Amino acid sequence: MNNQIIKKIALEAVSLSAEKLKKEYFNFSRKQVKIKGRHEIVTKYDLMSEKIIIKKIKEHFPNHHILSEEQGDNQKKSDYLWIIDPIDGTTNFSIHNPLWSVSLALLYKNEIILGIILAPILNELYIAEKNKGAFLNGKRIITPQINQEKAINTFCHGSTKKDIKRAIKYYFHQKLNNLDCRQLGSATLELAYVATGRVDSIVIPGAKPWDVVAGALIVSEAGGKVTDFSGKKWTIESPDILASNKNNYQEILKTIKKLKI
């Protein structure tokens, strides 16, 4: 299958979704929010975005496997797996914070071959292809190697109490012992920011694949490091994710192991 055709269609799907979301974002009211879990919300625009992307994929690749945050798994048997996050940073979207994005990734035989993150309000498109590098608005990204004492670390977490407690434990340690640690509210963008050097690491206990898979490829292709909390290669089955520039990676991994999170 022609990877350039796949890439073109993927970009069309993400762009169409982002265009519609951008129009709705400025008029959104929090009254429209629905609670889907104790620490999670969903809007009708998550569902709209997801529907747009899935429709585009099905039109061109009807036999492909699709895993999406809201609609779940279509259970197709295929070497190709699309993973969709229709709005990563839904809470940010709901409070008119521009740090949210549409995320789409494609795996072939369990290897990530394409990752796209589009932040509509910021007008930023991140894209990476396996062994072809990572790009922001068409310009190649090379992850800067910032020293640990100047590092801005970030964190996110899954929706369970256990994951939240682990994240707070990590935050508490980093906030007291290093320059800074913060949660931006969109794991996809935090990973993209690691790739560009805007921040220097992200730690996510309880990471869901749709939140991180596109960003994981972007960090790796930009020259960063992406593993699970034991230091093994991250896969979509991994329960946790650590992404960092290479200068800070060992220190962050050491901290995770020390804290036993």
List the defining traits of the structure above.
single chain; five-stranded mixed sheet; Fructose-1,6-Bisphosphatase, Chain A, domain 1; D-Maltodextrin-Binding Protein, domain 2; 261 residues; alpha+beta; eight-stranded mixed sheet
Summarize this, please?
The chain has helices spanning 3-25, 44-60, 90-94, 161-177, 187-196, 209-222, 246-259, and strands at 34-37, 40-42, 65-68, 72-73, 80-88, 101-108, 111-119, 124-129, 133-136, 139-140, 152-155, 180-182, 201-205, 225-227, 240-244. The chain has 261 residues and is of the alpha+beta class. The protein folds into two domains: 3-140, Fructose-1,6-Bisphosphatase, Chain A, domain 1 (2-Layer Sandwich), CATH 3.30.540; 148-259, D-Maltodextrin-Binding Protein, domain 2.
Describe the structure.
By secondary structure, the chain is of the alpha+beta class. Helix 5 (187-196) runs parallel beside helix 6 (209-222). The strands form three sheets. An eight-stranded mixed β-sheet has the order 4-3-5-6-7-8-9-10, with helices on both faces. It has a five-stranded mixed β-sheet with strand order 12-11-13-15-14, sandwiched between helices. Strands 1-2 form a two-stranded antiparallel ribbon. It is 38% helix and 27% strand. The protein contains seven helices and 15 strands.
